[in-house]
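Request: Have a read of the protein record below and say how the chain folds.
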Amino acid sequence: MRNACIVLRKNVNTTISSGIHAVLNELFLAGYQLEEVRWLPQMEEEQVIKGIQALKADFDNVFILADKTALPIAKKYIETCAANAKNKAEFAGAMISEEGKSSVFLLSNDGSETGVQYVKTACIPYLQQRYGLRFDKIVLRAVGANHARIDQMLAEGKRLAGNALSYYHERKFDEDIIELLYNNNTPKMLADDLLRMFVEGLGDTLYALENVSLEQQLISLLKLRGKKISVAESFTGGGIAKRLVSVSGASEVYWEGINAYNEESKIKRLGVSPYTLGTMGAVSEKTAYEMALGLLNTGDCDIAIATTGLAGPKSDKNMLPVGYCCIAVGTKERICVYQYRFDGTREEISEKAINYALFLAYKQLKNV
């Protein structure tokens, strides 16, 4: 089954809006990947009609995304392309048109839920019925995995599975998300073997076998263990706290976050020793350790995270390299400090540190 898409744009400056992304993502999550996407001006009737006809000749399914106000125009283009087509379903101006082996789907791409709902309630059921296929997926999420090793596993998976499975891989801020998409005709043994290969290959960098974020996984584990967490941040600037409180129900386990950016703040708010700052510097293992210890000494939390580092673009007075950071994660029994040297822009360095901090806290809590 081959799928393509036409996005009808208002003008040359049209970009991928949240609505377009949401509709395409819903199709992908259901197992329908797009081999080709074309952007065409919605008012150029001849160009759009030729585009629809060309894709219908080469693809089984053509998805047309249009702004809600342009749906009547797009519907006219589709009807012009296939005078003998029959409507299978309509929803808020959207439609499915079937002619021969090809089907054309008209979807709203505005910011509302219209397009997403039509995909769920009409398009996917129609495709499942027509092709007799139902898709499922395996999701693996990891932090700090060896990039070359992941690329090797993806290549090996494609070699073993051929066209029986589809793969999606995203790497962002040193977090890898791998999705294996397969249908009900895929041998279960093959899916199980590939899952085993990825789990073994990712090893202790793996934190989830479902599509949940780091912060969701950590908050869930904190609730399960009945523990509270506090965070002391310097160069991550409150980013860890922001991620944690984005999870519904975080207030049950999140005690406090202190953004101690200045050295005096580290002394007054966290009890970091002036001697440590004077001899070791603000960006050091000892400082990160004492920041975490300061949180734990309050007696209000069971696990603490502390970050200090250099996001750039310049070094500090100690001439440490940009990207160097120390992350402390610990409980009353043990505090561990980890050193990293991240590359990238200021934002990328900070976001990588946030991911590692959440991941390290999850790992330590899991092993308590």
The longest strand covers residues 135-143.
